[in-house]
Amino acid sequence: MVLADLGNKITNMLNTIATALLMSDVDVKLVKKMQTEVKEQCNIDEMASGVNKRRMIQQAVIKALTNLLDSKKRPFKPKRGKTNVFMFVGLQGSGKTTSCTKLAYYYKRKGWKVILICADTYRAGAYDQLKQNATKAKVAYYGSYTESDPVVVAEKGVNIGKEQKYDIVIVDTSGRHKQEEALFEEMQMVHKAVDPDEVIFVIDSSIGQAAKGQATAFQSSVDVGSIIITKMDNKNTRGGGALSAVAATGSPVTFIGTGEKMHALERFDAESFVGQLLGMGNLKGLMDV
Amino acid sequence: MAKNVAVDIAEKIVDSVCTALIGKVVGTFGTVRGVVKEAVEKALTRILTPKRVINILPEIQAAKRKGRPYVITFIGVNGVGKSTSLAKVCAYLQSKGLTVSIAACDTFRSGAVEQLKTHTRCLEARLFEKGYNRDAAGVAADAIAEAKRLKDDVVLVDTAGRMQDNTPLMRALAKLVAVNQPDLVLFVGEALVGNDAVDQVSRFNQALREYSTAKNPRLVDGMILTKFDTIDDKVGAAISLTYVTGKPIIFVGTGQTYSDLKRMNVKMLIRMLLR
Ligand SMILES: Nc1nc2c(ncn2[C@@H]2O[C@H](COP(=O)(O)OP(=O)(O)OP(=O)(O)O)[C@@H](O)[C@H]2O)c(=O)[nH]1
Ligand SMILES: Nc1nc2c(ncn2[C@@H]2O[C@H](COP(=O)(O)OP(=O)(O)OP(=O)(O)O)[C@@H](O)[C@H]2O)c(=O)[nH]1
Ligand SMILES: [Mg+2]
Ligand SMILES: [Mg+2]
């Protein structure tokens, strides 16, 4: 009787946690999977009497989420004495161009010689945006107002980077989505021309249930090396969509974007991300019920 | 929820469907599933059917008779597609024979002015711009005055993207709206967004109400939902946004070219949602 009651309580609690995760846009299937895993892990029969069950479950959930974020893959580290090439990809408006500049600025301050390449020949004003950003960050840039083929611009840019012995070349590309095949083919062509050391996938932290499908498509089309999650300065955002994307690609998150200006880039920290995801304040309250 | 409807709102819909179903006798021929589906469809149609119908074209004509341009302001968080949607609306209005000018009031983000410059060049519309780091409300006022002088039918005001919890920027937006009293305030949201959609639109509305200096603050009148082409059948953001605002989705963005602007089709949306 008591045991059955406890089982119910745990199920209730797990449901509450599941709701919190769904409210944070974690992929529905992922939530279900996690629920089962946690249930198995916290086998009530085996729970020693006296241990705090709530805490155990909470810990199990946090561990499961942190595991998802803990990629086995290591992000690429640029090497001195060669030209390291980064290529940015992602959905429209996710924050690629802004994040490119932030990363350029980050490495510049660490003493690397950096050049930004605008291989977005599609979006209106894309080159001006990158140019103005680069000027503010005081880094070199390359692009074209007249060339409409991104492959040509990207190739030229990377060659300039190599010839002029830049340490780091960062290639910005147009926003695209999996539903438009031609755009993905274009991305693969740019990828081939650029032959990057690392492809960085940029994702908006407020993305919902479409995150997983899009991320998977990018992953299978251009081997994503690492991820930047943007717009984390929105405190309401829980980032569950982004988490689902990370889980889907199995790539590590390196940075988060926390504002529009170029210094608003922070190292990713899995624990505090999971904290924001679960809305820790809220969840703690729920757990005490 | 797998279709990206916000959790709270999904629950409310379920509640209302349950209430509607209580006491209903399942007829001999109807299956339970059928009855439930019908009730859900009804609830969704109710949510998605606007209370106030907005007919821009007659409203523009009415403003014209008063000898002033009709002003539409586009607002929303960063990168959702405000400027692109504005360009699409410009093309749409031009196709109806109207003269349109665009006010470049995103004086913050790099390339924002040049982005509009490119669009106005393609569309042969007039651009009013004062460069960067200007007071957006002032630029809008000048643009509207200029449009009045040159007898434009419509002025489309672009604004910088901002996070809904960024108080200084939200204040600045409320000022722009209060000072210029646009005829239509359009909230631009993206179909990709998850549970944050609800918070976004309610906080924009709240800011327009609370930070406004005007006696009768202008709130969001309608919405544009962009990037509909990127979400397969995960169309839930439409439900969440309409549910919280009670305001109509006037256009849906379905791509990156000028013609990718569609009127919202409630039936089609519900079909996708229940598929
Ligand atoms: N608040 C905030 N805004 C951001 C952040 N990162 C980018 N943005 C804003 O998001 C908007 C879109 O950013 P872009 O860098 O132009 O996005 P993009 O992915 O290059 O867009 P496309 O090239 O059109 O696909 C801009 O208004 C940026 O200022 C961030 O971390 N925080
Ligand atoms: N696929 C798709 N892309 C869109 C749609 N609407 C806009 N975009 C793209 O989204 C990106 C951002 O669009 P913008 O119009 O610059 O967004 P914004 O809201 O003005 O951005 P900020 O001014 O930086 O806040 C661009 O790459 C657009 O081409 C749409 O309906 N479908
Ligand atoms: Mg860009
Ligand atoms: Mg814009």
Describe this structure in words.
- The complex is a heterodimer of chains A (289) and B (275).
- Chain A is α/β, with parallel strands linked by helices.
- Helix content of chain A is 51%, strand content 15%.
- An eight-stranded mixed sheet of chain A has the order 3-2-4-1-5-6-7-8, with helices on both faces.
- In chain A, helix 1 packs antiparallel against helix 2, helix 6 packs parallel to helix 7 and helix 10 packs across helix 11.
- The two termini of chain A are 21 Å apart.
- Chain B is α/β, with parallel strands linked by helices and 275 residues long.
- In chain B, 47% of the residues lie in helices and 15% in strands.
- Chain B has ten helices and eight strands.
- An eight-stranded mixed sheet of chain B has the order 3-2-4-1-5-6-7-8, with helices on both faces.
- Chain B starts with 6 loop residues before the first helix and ends with a helix.
- The model of chain B has no long low-confidence stretch (mean pLDDT 90).
- At the A-B interface, helix 1, helix 5 and helix 8 of A face helix 4, helix 5 and helix 8 of B.
- The complex binds guanosine-5'-triphosphate (2 copies) and magnesium ion (2 copies).
- One magnesium ion (MG) binds next to helix 4 of chain A.
